[in-house]
Amino acid sequence: MGSHFHDPERIQPGVEKYVTLQIMLKRMAKKNIFTDAFGTPYVFKRLIIFILGIVSYRRFNGFNKLTITGTEHLLDLPDSNVLFVSNHQTYFADVAAMYHAFCAVNNGYLNTIKNPVYLLNPKVDFYYVAAEETMNKGILARIFKIAGAVTVKRTWRAEGKNVNRLLDMSEVDNIMKALDNGWVITFPQGTTAAFAQGRKGTAKLVKNQRPIVVPIKINGFRRAFDKKGLRIKVTGVRPTLEFKKPLEIDYETETAQQILTKIMVSIEQTEDFNLLHQYEEELKAKKKAELPS
Q: Which of 50, 215, 229, 260 is at 20 to 30 A from 190, Cα to Cα?
């Protein structure tokens, strides 16, 4: 979904103080019992999630079988300021599967989506960070947006071209507002490409907001669905959704870079997990050893 936080290298002086002040102000605000963080009525949001859940259900428990592990780690989490960080394989299927998992846990079903009755009582204070240009393309994307998208403009990429633009502070406000009202999912790589570097902005905002950070490792979505995650490419695939234990982060001493490294290792997107990279390195070492001394 092109979801991401922005690169802090583009954050201008004074932004860190601004972010800290906004955190304090947001936490003073009372939660609305009728609408979500962005004014969408819960009744409408429940209906949208129910419809999307019914439409997508057979994709994860029919044509393909979604395997979920680790949802026991979600049971004792607070209702707000929880950030889920995940690798990314399709624009929409990843998030749709997560919605199923969260709604199931919300109704007491751990590591399973076999009983879709959970869609009648969805988790509505759940948001995901997504690229604005992706969420404005087509009717279905706009419907997904209502379900909980926090849209942002990528500072490094737009309409298939490299760009170099400043951070929009209103988008930072929206991310913090979502965290202060519920759970948020972000894809720190900001792309569906495997083993892409993590964007430092994710760690910068984590350090300022100090949420509980829960890693999610997904696999098999790229094989089962097309890039958008709307069309089934192959049936009989078992995509996996693995929730890991919340990260232990020392917000007083760890730098943003250290936090980013910890996040990328937890979602298994560093080069150490890239088998192809390991093979290429071994091949280089072998050729080097065979050279005459």
A: 50
In a domain, 3, yes or no: no
Write the burial class of residue 282 (CB in 10 Å: 0-12 exposed, 13-18 middle, 19+ buried). Answer: exposed
| Cα–Cα dist 192/89, whole Å | 5
The token pair at 114 is 């076999």
CA distance 172 to 6: 9
- Taking Cα atoms as reference points, which of 168, 136, 141, 170 lies closest to residue 155? 168
Which residues span the domain enclosing 207? 8-290
- What torsion, rounded to 10 degrees, do the Cα atoms 271, 273, 277, 282 define? 110
Q: Is 2 within a domain?
A: no
At 218 the three-state DSSP class reads strand
Q: Could you tell me if residue 1 is inside a domain? A: no
When divided into structural domains, the chain yields a total of 1
Cα gap 164→55, rounded to integer Å: 38
| Residue 145 included in any domain | yes
Q: What is the CATH number of the domain that holds 262?
A: 3.40.1130
Per-residue pLDDT of the chain (293 residues; tens, 9 = 90+): 544 444 434 444 455 555 555 555 554 445 678 999 999 999 999 999 999 999 999 999 999 999 999 999 999 999 999 999 999 999 999 999 999 999 999 999 999 999 999 999 999 999 999 988 888 888 888 899 999 999 988 665 555 556 555 667 778 889 999 999 999 999 999 888 898 999 888 899 999 999 999 999 999 999 999 999 999 999 999 999 999 999 999 999 999 999 999 999 999 999 888 876 555 566 666 666 777 65
Beta bridge partners of residue 212, listed in sequence order? 82
Alpha-helical regions (H) of the chain = 15-28, 42-60, 93-106, 132-135, 139-146, 169-181, 200-209, 221-224, 256-266, 275-290
